[in-house]
Amino acid sequence: MELIKIHGHTHYIPGATNAGVFTTKSGYCLLIDSGINNTIAHKISQVLAGNDLKPRYLLTTHGHADHFGAHSLLKELYPGLEILASPLEKPFMENNLLGTTALYGANPFDEIKVPLLFARPAAVDLTITPGPLKLLDQHLQVLATPGHTAGHLAFLTPDGVLFCGDAVYDPATLAKYPVPFLLDIKAELATLGTLAGMDIPFLLPAHGREVIIDPAPVLEKNRRQINNCLEMLLDLLAQPLTREDLLAQVAILEDMTMDVPQYFLNLASLSAFISYLKDEGRLACTVENGKLYFYVS
Known about the structure:
Blueprint: E1 4-7, E2 10-13, E3 19-23, E4 28-32, H1 38-50, E5 54-59, H2 65-68, H3 71-77, E6 82-85, H4 90-94, H5 96-104, E7 126-127, E8 131-135, E9 138-144, E10 153-156, E11 161-165, H6 171-176, H7 185-196, E12 202-205, H8 215-236, H9 243-254, H10 260-279, E13 283-288, E14 291-296
Parallel strand pairs: 4-5, 5-6, 6-7, 11-12
Antiparallel strand pairs: 1-2, 2-3, 3-4, 8-9, 9-10, 10-11, 13-14
Helix pairs in contact: 1-3, 7-8, 9-10
């Protein structure tokens, strides 16, 4: 791992989850997201030490394990480090059962408790809301970017770099996951619209190795993939299907392979698309013989 400069004082440490780094002349820095586990925390620490940097604040885009799983060890390695997150994401970071319970709908069995979904808990020192944020005498902008999660935040540095977490997927991630993981389609479409209306010189999604210097096409690609998924589901639901049967049909069409945790992630995302279509009045549902069927209304 290495520290890569984006612009001005804004850098990142590339990884499975990119960690943002905003430096100051004092040698203190801000971190944005960490990674999935203690191994990543040690690697981040090594990169910071190699650049004579010490983190003072750790900002969190959202409470998914691959974004905060390294938080706790970083806080142990750097006494005084403060962890910040939105009020809606805080409970998921502090209780590692909450996310998997929500995903499964009950106490999850052990096979669902994989590192991707079940991180070491991280205590949040300060909750933050959208708007200006002054840290280390630097002024950042906190943006509400819900859709992937309810309390998802993005952070715009004074250098014009937006760390967008999973509010925007890079093209390679979209190609890998034909049904993007989202919990609220309406909110995600609104987020994409808001970002499209902003002047963002540099955009860095949490996953993907390239800084995006022309966000408009990527934002449009995200929006288009959502709409393609909606149209695909409407076509499939010309005949009544349960959520599970619908997921099976989507898996065949998109050549998706899944293990148990991935099954529940895809089912949750599919449910978000169904909810959106149902609330838009484009789907109806009925219970027959103990099964819940959805179909085009």
